[in-house]
Design brief:
Elements (H helix, E strand, L loop, with lengths): L2 H25 L5 E9 L7 H13 L3 E5 L1 H6 L2 H4 L5 E5 L13 H19 L1 E3 L1 E2 L10 H7 L4 E2 L5 E6 L2 E6 L1 E4 L17 E6 L4 H12 L3 E3 L2 H5 L4 E3 L5
Parallel strand pairs: 1-2, 1-10, 1-11, 2-3, 5-6, 9-10
Antiparallel strand pairs: 4-12, 6-7, 7-8
Helix pairs in contact: 2-7
């Protein structure tokens, strides 16, 4: 065999190997699975350090998310409202973290929801439109309570979120998981058109949350905020909140 033929064969092998090495990156789908990380601050455990550490992890990784606080925690730890980076929505969870249906009457329910939002708004100089019911418990009053409290998005449920649109609240599909119980590979089997909400609370070590974020960023997922998901401005800051 002539040297020129050998050289051509070797060149062809090198090119083929290079294509095979590069091809998987071209075939890898772009990140389409929307992931909303949700952090519930329902007590004063590890505060304010937990908030500060979480804020640093989110900022370092350029990750959007949603943070929900009860009113009395927001009053005592305003840094847990103001300290998060841009792209992190702030929501309320009532004032005392009590089950809304357990309250005596509609007036008591409305006061609990309104006072929770007011405390969060005051602590952060914001107008938050985002809500989650304590324990995920709601009753037939929920839409009226949200409307009268100027709340536009409700993430109280495991299989849906509700957003205010065209004068009424509409339901949208959502899949919710406890962030401490599933491996990242589990989420590869969820259809890419289903938004996924992953819940954590302030009992979860921030180091563990950072590991979860790193794993997701290496796979076919991208992080969204509640504002991104609903196409509503759910955290209005500063003078615009007045």
């Amino acid at each position: 065999m002539k040297i020129v033929h050998v050289g051509a064969i070797i060149t062809g092998i090198v090119i083929t190997m290079g294509v095979l090495l590069i091809l998987p990156e071209f075939l890898r789908p772009s990140p389409t699975q929307p992931i909303l990380l949700s952090f519930n601050i329902i007590n004063e455990r590890n505060l304010p350090n937990w908030c500060h550490d979480l804020s640093s992890v989110l900022a370092k990784n350029n990750v959007k998310a949603a943070v929900f606080l009860i009113g009395k925690v927001a009053e005592r730890h305003p840094d847990c409202v103001t300290g998060f980076p841009q792209g992190v929505d702030i929501g309320s969870e009532s004032y005392d973290y009590v089950s809304i249906p357990s309250l005596a009457d509609y007036s008591a329910q409305l006061e609990e929801v309104k006072n929770g939002k007011a405390a969060v708004d005051k602590a952060g100089n914001i107008d938050s439109k985002l809500f989650r019911a304590p324990y995920g418990a709601t009753d037939v009053n929920i839409y009226s309570l949200l409307n009268r409290s100027n709340l536009l998005a409700d993430f109280s449920y495991n299989e849906q979120y509700n957003k205010y649109y065209d004068g009424k609240f509409l339901k949208f599909d959502l899949v919710t998981y406890n962030g401490t119980k599933y491996y990242t590979s589990f989420f590869r089997h969820i259809p890419s058109d289903e938004p996924v909400l992953i819940n954590f609370d302030n009992s979860t070590p921030v180091s563990q949350i950072g590991e979860v974020i790193s794993e997701f960023k290496s796979e076919n997922f991208h992080f969204v905020s509640a504002t991104d998901l609903t196409s509503l401005d759910l955290t209005v800051h500063g003078d615009k909140a007045l």
